[in-house]
Specification:
Largest sheet: 9 strands, mixed
Low-confidence stretches: none
Shape: globular
Mean pLDDT: 97
Helix content: 25-40%
Number of strands: 19
Radius of gyration: 21 Å
Number of helices: 13
Bound molecules: N-(aminocarbonyl)-beta-alanine, zinc ion
């Protein structure tokens, strides 16, 4: 099966040139001007379009049980939405359950991930970090699960203590795996939550007011120092606070293998959203919460200075209304108590257009930097490169054909997630994903879906945590 993508402007994290791309058996076979192919080859016309590497989103929560709640997208719906947003690979979170080993959690994740429409890898969330779990980590690394996630937040649900964090980091570091950390001081935040509720402060805004930036900074500093002692690379997920970024930058200046990620909502939204009336603010209850403009500016600065290397979505989709899919999939779980609002927001379909429109077109970052942040750097950090994250001979033919000039507006009604709202409803955007190829197969063509559930492959990743 041969496909040729003709006349596109190929943009990678370092290249920008016009050429054809010949695809054979799902991989890029040749790149060149006016490539000669037989009449059996299918042609995809990319005239006037940018040809970008398929996006790599290393922070998604599909079909995920989270305390009393459950995320609304299956692997089928979530990855279809990802594809329409120009993402062809995700690394999603598998979960150890309390009282069970990580291997069982991985098997459970694998069976759910079978319906994926794009390629998928798994990070493993570690909860009970005992000797058996540490031994399982090495087995998982051999299976291509080369990153582990620990939480210093959500006490009683996902939080581990510092000793457990250290033990897991030591095993990861010694075996070529990355440690991802959700950095917030859970116990201190818990005190603030209980005090707010005792004072009758139950609305969504108190989610933000009880999760101060200082407690993100404290846990970021702690996680990095513990990783340093453990000899492990560390990746601070969903960074939102200037003080946390300062800790990361300081560690990187000292040559520590510390990395950071932020998400579109911290780049394009601020805490004013929590003043929305009628529980509408619950849509913006994600962790960490939205911050001030000053913190937002700091995140953009971090992207420019490479103290932050990745933009991923933290797609953690919950519906707004209980009636859409049922109570446990809905923000309404916390209508009378902000601490019960499921934490997380949809965003898997809007990353690339938002970053192009609000980052590249505004001159905050270059086109190359956009590709790096959304595809190349995450692929390198998480053991997917050069199979994923670039356009090169031998790489998977995961391509996004992007019109940099098309104007449109974000509407949840046009989205493919099961969530019925968007954080960016009505936002005008210039730049749109037009076609998406997964291993040479056209899966998105304008508004048309040509992919199918089950065509995504599990990707056994290589060593993680190296230099991006
Ligand atoms: O609010 C968020 N981010 N929900 C998902 C779980 C997490 O903390 O990543
Ligand atoms: Zn988190
Ligand atoms: Zn998350």
């Amino acid at each position: 099966m041969r496909t040729i993508v003709r006349n596109g402007r190929i943009v990678t994290s370092i290249d920008d040139y016009s050429a054809d791309i010949l695809i054979e058996d799902g991989r890029i076979r040749a790149i060149g001007r006016d490539l000669e192919v037989g009449s059996d080859a299918r042609t995809v016309d990319a005239s006037n379009l940018l040809v970008l590497p398929g996006g790599v989103d290393v922070h998604t929560h599909l079909d995920w049980e989270f305390g009393a709640s459950h995320t609304a997208d299956t692997f089928g719906t979530g990855t279809m939405a990802a594809a329409f947003g120009g993402t062809t690979t995700i690394v999603d979170f598998a979960n150890q359950s309390r009282g069970a080993g990580p291997l069982a959690g991985f098997d459970n994740w694998l069976s759910r991930a079978k319906s994926a429409c794009i390629d998928v890898g798994a990070h493993m969330i570690m909860l009970d970090i005992d000797d058996a779990a540490l031994a399982d980590m090495k087995i998982l690394i051999n299976e291509g699960v080369t990153s582990f996630k620990m939480f210093t937040a959500y006490p009683g649900v996902l939080m581990v203590d510092d000793g457990q964090l250290f033990r897991a980091m030591r095993v990861a570091g010694a075996n070529g795996a990355m440690t991802c950390v959700h950095c917030e001081n859970g116990p201190v935040i818990q005190v603030l939550i209980e005090e707010a509720l005792a004072q009758g402060r139950t609305g969504p805004k108190y989610h933000m007011l009880t999760r101060p930036t200082l407690m993100e900074a404290e846990a970021t500093h702690r996680a990095i120092r513990i990783a340093e002692l453990a000899g492990a690379p560390v990746y601070c997920v969903h960074m939102s606070a200037a003080e946390a970024l300062q800790s990361l930058a300081e560690a990187r200046d000292r040559g520590i293998a510390a990395h950071g990620e932020t998400c579109p909502h911290y780049l394009f939204l601020t805490l004013e959203e929590y003043d929305r009336p009628d529980f509408d603010a619950a849509k913006f209850v994600m962790t960490p919460p939205l911050r001030t403009h000053a913190h937002q500016d700091a995140m953009w600065r971090g992207l420019r200075t490479n103290d932050i290397q990745v933009i991923s979505t933290d797609h953690c989709p919950f519906c707004f209304h209980e009636r859409t899919l049922g109570a446990k999939y809905s923000k309404e779980l916390g209508r009378d108590d902000f601490s019960k609002i499921p934490n997380g927001a949809p965003g898997i379909e809007t990353r690339l257009p938002l970053v192009y429109d609000g980052g590249v077109r505004t001159g905050r970052i270059s086109l190359h930097r956009m590709v790096d942040l959304t595809a190349t750097a995450p692929a390198k950090l998480f053991g997917l490169f050069p199979r994923k994250g670039t356009i090169a001979v031998g790489s998977d033919a995961d391509l996004v054909l992007f019109d940099p000039n098309e104007r449109w507006a974000i509407r949840a009604a046009d989205h493919h997630s099961r969530v019925e709202f968007s954080l960016y409803e009505g936002r005008p955007i210039t730049g749109r994903v037009k076609k998406v190829l997964l291993r040479g197969n056209v899966i998105v063509d304008g508004a048309m879906w040509l992919g199918r559930e089950g065509m995504g492959e599990f990707i056994k990743r290589g060593a993680s945590g190296g230099l991006a």
